[in-house]
C-alpha cells in the first residue's frame, strides 16, 4: 500500500523455485527494513472467516499464501 | 555616436548580468553539489481517486463479505475483539458469538472500542499508518487502505496495534453521538441483511 497510489505490485514469483524465492526473500526483507509491516490474508479453516496473519519473517508466510501485503508501520495518532 | 552606442551596450550588458547572475550562480552551486532538482509532486485528485478505487478492490478481496457490505453501505467495519484476557468467546459462528467487545474501524479516524451488548463506548485508539517516504506527494493512505491496514493489524496482532495506539476516552476525536448513531445504523443494517439472507434461503431454487 502506498499513499496516493494504493496497491503496488512489488514482486511475484513461485517460492518453490530457488531463483524466485531468493528474489521474494530479498524484497520481503527490503520492505521490512523500510519499516513496513507485512500481513497475509488468510481464511480460518474451522469457521471460514477471513483474517490476517502478521508475519515478521519470510519463513512465517504460509506455504499456500497467495500474497503478502505490506503497509506502513502503525504509529500513535 | 560610437561613444553613445558603446555606453548603451555596456548598460545593457550590466543589466543582463544583474538578471542572469543569480540563475547562473544557483546552477553552478547545484552542479558543484551534484544535486538534481527534485521533481515536484503535488496533489492530484485523479490519482487519489484511482488510488482509492484500487484500495477498495484490495479491501474487498481481503475482508469477509459481511464486512465489505458493512463498509460499502455504512462507511466503517466492525471487528470483534479477541484479546486473550477477555472472556471466552462462544463456539457458534466461528467463535464470534459472545465476544465481549468490538471495534468500529473508520477511515482516518480513531478506532472506537465498545460493548456490543450494551452499546457502551470504551475507548478511542488513535493510530495512523504514515509513510515517511512520501513517494507520491501524500503521506496518507487511501481511505480503504487505511481501513484495511487497521483490519489486518486488528485481526492479525490486536495486542501490538492496541499497544502502539494512543488510547483516549470516548469523545476525544470521534463524536460519541455519531458513534451511537452508527451503532444504531449497524443494527438496522444487520437486521435487514438477516431478513434478506432468510428470504433467499426460503425462496425455492430457480426463482
Please indicate the percent range of residues of chain B in DSSP E strands (runs of 2 or more).
5-15%
Q: What topology, given as strand order, has the largest sheet of chain B?
A: 1-2-3-4-5
Spans of at least 5 consecutive residues with low confidence of chain B:
84-97
Largest interface: A-B, 30 and 52 residues
Helix proportion range of chain B: 40-55%
Structural class by SSE content of chain B: alpha+beta
Rg from Cα of chain A: 13 Å
What's a quick, concise take on this entry?
The complex is a heterodimer of chains A (77) and B (207). Helices cover 21% and strands 26% of the residues of chain A. Chain A has one helix at 18-33, and strands at residues 36-43, 50-55, 69-72, 75-76.
What does this structure look like?
The complex is a heterodimer of chains A (77) and B (207). With 77 residues, chain A is α+β, with helices and mostly antiparallel strands. Chain A has one domain. In chain A, 21% of the residues lie in helices and 26% in strands. Chain A has one helix at 18-33; strands at 36-43, 50-55, 69-72, 75-76. Chain A has a three-stranded antiparallel beta sheet with strand order 2-1-3, covered by helices on one side. In chain A, a hairpin with a 6-residue loop joins strand 1 and strand 2 (50-55). Chain A is globular. Chain B has 207 residues and is of the alpha+beta class. Chain B folds into two domains: 1-31; 46-202, no CATH class. Helix content of chain B is 55%, strand content 11%. Chain B contains six helices and five strands; from the N terminus they run H-H-H-E-H-E-E-E-H-E-H. Chain B has a five-stranded antiparallel beta sheet, with helices on both faces. The termini of chain B are far apart. In chain B, 28% of the residues are buried. At the A-B interface, strand 1, strand 2, strand 3 and strand 4 of A face helix 2, helix 4, strand 4 and helix 5 of B. Strand 4 of chain A pairs antiparallel with strand 4 of chain B, so a sheet runs across the interface.
Amino acid at each position: 500500500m502506498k499513499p496516493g497510489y494504493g496497491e503496488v505490485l512489488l514482486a511475484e514469483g513461485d517460492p518453490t523455485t530457488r531463483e524466485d524465492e531468493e528474489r521474494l526473500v530479498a524484497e520481503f526483507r527490503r520492505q521490512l527494513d523500510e519499516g513496513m509491516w507485512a500481513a497475509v490474508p488468510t481464511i480460518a479453516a474451522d469457521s471460514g472467516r477471513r483474517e490476517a496473519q502478521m508475519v515478521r519473517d519470510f519463513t512465517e508466510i504460509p506455504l499456500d499464501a497467495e500474497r503478502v501485503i505490506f503497509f506502513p508501520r502503525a504509529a500513535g495518532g | 555616436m560610437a561613444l553613445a552606442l558603446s555606453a548603451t551596450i555596456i548598460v545593457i550588458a550590466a543589466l543582463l548580468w544583474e538578471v542572469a547572475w543569480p540563475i547562473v550562480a544557483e546552477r553552478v552551486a547545484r552542479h558543484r553539489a551534484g544535486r538534481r532538482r527534485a521533481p515536484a509532486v503535488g496533489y492530484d485528485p485523479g490519482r487519489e481517486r484511482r488510488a482509492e478505487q484500487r484500495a477498495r478492490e484490495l479491501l474487498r478481496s481481503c475482508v469477509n463479505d459481511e464486512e465489505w457490505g458493512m463498509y460499502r453501505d455504512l462507511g466503517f467495519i466492525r471487528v470483534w475483539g479477541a484479546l486473550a484476557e477477555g472472556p471466552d468467546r462462544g463456539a457458534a459462528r466461528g467463535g464470534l458469538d459472545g465476544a465481549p467487545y468490538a471495534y468500529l474501524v473508520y477511515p482516518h479516524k480513531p478506532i472506537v472500542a465498545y460493548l456490543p451488548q450494551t452499546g457502551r463506548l470504551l475507548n478511542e485508539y488513535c493510530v495512523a499508518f504514515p509513510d515517511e517516504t512520501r513517494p507520491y506527494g501524500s503521506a496518507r493512505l487511501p481511505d480503504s487502505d487505511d481501513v484495511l491496514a487497521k483490519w489486518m493489524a486488528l485481526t492479525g496482532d490486536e495486542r501490538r496495534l492496541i499497544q502502539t495506539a494512543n488510547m483516549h476516552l470516548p469523545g476525544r476525536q470521534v463524536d460519541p453521538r455519531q458513534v451511537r448513531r452508527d451503532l444504531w445504523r449497524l443494527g438496522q443494517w444487520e437486521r435487514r441483511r438477516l431478513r434478506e439472507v432468510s428470504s433467499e434461503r426460503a425462496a425455492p431454487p430457480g426463482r
